[in-house]
Every structure is written in structure tokens, then in C-alpha cells.
Amino acid sequence: MTAKVIDGKAYAEGLRVRIAKAVKELGAKHGLKPGLAVVLVGEDPASKVYVANKAKQTVEVGMNSWEHRLDAATSEKDLLALVDKLNNDPAVHGILVQLPLPKQIDSTKVLNTINPAKDVDGFHVVNAGKLATGQDSLVACTPVGSVMLAKDALGKLDGLEAVVIGRSNIVGKPVAQLLLQENCTVTIAHSKTKDLPGVVRRADLVIAAVGRPEMVKGDWIKPGACVIDVGINRIERDGKGKLVGDCDYASCSAVAGSITPVPGGVGPMTIACLLHNTVRAACAQKSVPVPEM
Ligand SMILES: Nc1nc(=O)c2c([nH]1)NC[C@@H]1CN(c3ccc(C(=O)N[C@@H](CCC(=O)O)C(=O)O)cc3)C=[N+]21
Question: What's the Enzyme Commission number for this chain (predicted)?
Fold first, then answer.
């Protein structure tokens, strides 16, 4: 079997067209222009790729975009002061503080200082808790985008065996919560899991979010399964830089029923979902109904 390639880039483009329409409508009907502030501390290569794409796409859908670049040596106090300023700026509806943060800064403290209503990453403990208890909340972008692509490929997810590889707060745990809401039987596997290949082989739906280049091999995949590869790893091959996922694409795509490529899979969905969350956050802050997107 050769897997159907799930085109995250095309799906995200469609979503952005709908978001742009919604933004236009909010401007015309309510004089509301959603705005997103991104804070980058220091220089992380993955974060730089993300920020460049994000800023461009935020403006393309008609929203305000602000970028705050701080020195790698910035103190926690100074970063918290900036977050506080953005919390109190009525033009800023969404705040994203790029991770990872330098060692001198406690990221949990920073994330929990963001006003939960402006937490478009969905990383604040209040939003994480609401997701876990089934309350309406801002949900982390990569998990939402991953589940959208899985539903696009499989239709209903009810009753499927889903295996999430990775237990991070930013992908593994929230994506598992979303899959539970979709009535999957969810297993969260991780580095201490015994017989990881055997566990993954049970899955109708595999979500790989470990951050290890090409770790998941084709013989771990149940024939016909859907593989959502969340990994974005920069590697050197044949003297050239290359982006690869957490799945070994060549062997996995020979066995899977459908698979997301890297690049062009989950990555573009993450940004589209960030814009989606920013519109939702802006509407909630201005007590305006959320347009269809
Ligand atoms: N608070 C916070 N939230 C994040 O969501 C967050 C973060 N910090 N820190 C960094 C990571 C990384 N990340 C990416 C998202 C999309 C692409 C993306 O669009 N990638 C393109 C390819 C880009 C290329 O070609 O280089 C793709 O996969 O097709 C990449 C990376 C979000 N992150």
C-alpha cells in the first residue's frame, strides 16, 4: 500500500481563507480588528522559522501583528513586565510567548501570567484544566490542527484506537484530551513505554510527537493506519540541512493508509489554528459572536 498524503498546507490555506473572511466581517460589523502579539526571547532556530511564517500570515488574514524581540539575557522580571503590559493593552487580543525560553526564566510562571482570555497557545493552566474537564477554552494549536487532519483523513474517529507518542504539555497531553472527546480509545506512550513498537502497532491513528527525527518505523505501523507526524526536526543529510518528522516517511508511507508529510503537514495547521484562536479570543473579549470559520 502507498499511503494517501494528507495535505496540511492546502487544508491550512483553506482555513486561512475562511479566517480572512471572518476578520473582514468583524471589521465591517463591529469595527473589530483582532491583534496578535508574539514575544521572542533570544535566538532559537525552530522559533525563528515559526515567527517568520506567523507574522506574514497574521497580516495576510487582515489582523494586527506585533513582534517583541528580547535579548537572550532578558530577566524573568522584565519578561513578566512585558506580559503584564500586553495583558492590559486592549488592542492585543492574543499573546504568544515563544518556547523554549532561556534557562534563567521559569516558563511555567510566564505562561501562567498571560491573561487566560488572551492565551492563544492554550498553555495557561486554566485553559489546560478546562480542556481536561470538557469546558470551552482556548486549545493548543498543534493538537487542534492534528485532530483536524486526522478527521479529514478518517472521517469520524469514534471507537478508534489512537496512540499518542509523547507526553508533553504542549502536544501529547492536549492531543490525547481532544482524541478522548472524539471518542477514541487513547494510549499515551513515551520514552519509558515497554515495547513501544508493539503498542504503536495496535493503533488505527498514530500521533507522533516525540521530537526524535525518523524514530517511528514502517514496521511499527498497522497496515492502513492514519499517521499524523507532529515532529519538525532539522537534520543534516548528504551535507545539506533538511526538515524531517518523527516518523521515517519512506517506510511508514509504504504501510499507512494516510500520512502527513514534513514539511507541509501539521506545521502549517499550527499557524492557521493560532490565527483561528486569535479571532475567537478577540470576539470573546469584545462580547461579539464568533463568525463561522
Ligand atoms: N509558544 C509557542 N507556541 C508554538 O506553537 C511554538 C513555539 N512556542 N515555539 C516553536 C514551535 C515550533 N512551531 C512551528 C510551527 C509551524 C511550523 C511550520 O509551519 N513549518 C512548516 C515548514 C517550515 C519550513 O519549511 O522551514 C511545515 O511544517 O510545513 C514550524 C514550527 C511552533 N512552535
Answer: 1.5.1.5, 3.5.4.9
pTM, entire model:
0.97
Helices 45-60 + 266-285 axis angle, to 10: 60
Fold (CATH) for 32-116: Rossmann fold (3.40.50)
- Tell me whether strands 161-165 and 205-208 are parallel, antiparallel or unpaired: parallel
* All structural domains of the chain with their residue ranges: 32-116, 141-267
Pick the CATH number of 141-267 from 1.10.3290.10, 3.40.50.720, 1.10.3210.10, 3.40.50.20: 3.40.50.720
pLDDT tens string 154-204: 999 999 999 999 999 999 999 999 999 999 999 999 999 999 999 999 999
Is 285 annotated in the active site?
no
Per-residue pLDDT tens digits for 74-114 = 999 999 999 999 999 999 999 999 999 999 999 999 999 99
Q: What angle do CA 57, 63, 69 make, to 5 degrees?
A: 70
- Which residues form the pocket of ligand 1, taking CB atoms under 6 Å from any ligand atom? 46-47, 49-50, 53, 96-99, 121, 141, 232, 243, 262-264, 267-268, 270-271
